[in-house]
Structures are given as C-alpha cells and as structure tokens.
Amino acid sequence: MTDLLAGRIAVVTGAAHPRGIGRAILNGLQENGAAVVGTDLADAAGLEDFDGMACDVTDAAQCEAVVAHTIQLYGRIDILVNNAGVGIGAADFMALSDQDWDLTLAVNLRGVVNFCRAAIPAMLNEGGSIINDASLAGTGAMDSIPACYTASKFATVGLSKQLAAQYAANGIRVNALCPGSVITQMHEQSLALLAATHGITVEEAQAMENASIPLGRSAQPEEVGQAAVFLASDLASYVTGVALPVAGGMAPGL
Hints:
By secondary structure, the chain is of the alpha/beta class. It has seven helices and seven strands.
C-alpha cells in the first residue's frame, strides 16, 4: 500500500464483480490510501468487505443518494469513477433492437450523466477527479462490437471532454479511461461474439485478438486499476480532457 491517495474520498460504480474492472479500480484506490464507496446494481452483493451500496445508475435519485451517503460518512467526495456499464446486442447493426439501444444508452451514457450531476456540486469548491470508463471502443470502431456500445462510448468520451473544459476553472479534472481487451467476465462475452461472427472457436478468437495487440496479450483488470489510480492522483494534476487508452498498443480500425 502507498499513501498516494491518502485522505481522498472516492465513489466507484459497477464495482461488485470480483473479476471486473470496477473492483480492480476500487482495490487500487483503496490500496493507495483512499476511502472508497463502491456501488452496483440491485444490491451490494460482492461488496461486503467494502463500504458497498446498491445503485441503479439509470435512476438519478439513487445516484444522488450514493453521493449524499458518501458526504454524510466522509464530509466530501474527491474522486468519482463511472465504471458501471453494459455490453449487449449483436455485431450486426440491423439486428440491434430498440431495447438494446435504450438500455445501452441509459446505462453507459445517461448513468454517467446522472452521477456527474450528483457529484460535481460537491466538488466545486475543493476540486476533484472524475474518471469515466469509456472503453477503447470510445476512440474508434472495432470488429464485432455492437454499434450501440460504440456509440455510447464515443458519447462518453465527448461528455468527458466537455465537462473537462467547463469545470477546469473549479479544479475538477475529467478524463475518459479507455481499456482495450481486459480479462473480465465481459471479456468472455465479447470473445464469444467474436467467435460467432467469424465462425471460429473461442480459443481461436482469443488468438485473433492477441494478434491485434502489439503487447500480444489482454490486460489484467489490475492494470486498468493502476491507470485509474494515476488519473485520480496528483501525478495527473495537469491531465484533463484526455481519452487514455489502456490497451497494450491495440488501436481501433476507424
């Protein structure tokens, strides 16, 4: 453990799954000295060892309740990590349903909006760091990724840049974190989709993906967590409005 974030108060959404990026970010912030409130959908199962709280990010009132809870406990909020997200739908644009579009945008974009609206007023006087998980799909189109997901992540990058411009004078830094291929539970779903799209096995899909990554492998969630710690800390005190790829050199096609 280090004291890089000693005394900082953080909220991380989508943090319950033990193999997820959100949990890795929560662990990284905590290991570097921050006090962290973790949230996830429906219940806080999986967050028993942390200050966990149930929250549906599509419900603005629930997001406001998490921020109020955090301020009641700790007096302020310094770091917000909007990690909660969904990856649903087919790779074929015409096969996407209205429900695919509605849920993806409600969680991946509107959920970020809801939490930023709730947290920014508490950061206006003392400043803070907002980190929005935008995925590498927020920087360019990628093979076999549903269009609704890509659109939601592009929008998250744009939102992050706009907020960075507006709130820089208040000392609030806003950045988008853009992971590529990461070994999580969602990675299994994306590999299965890639395999189905190309008519290959999951193992062949992983080999295909590895071949597209200059470092030759997918990331561990902890490696994304370390990047979030950097963006949250004073090491990134002059970094705002950035879409930071954490992708081993992997780049989107368009």
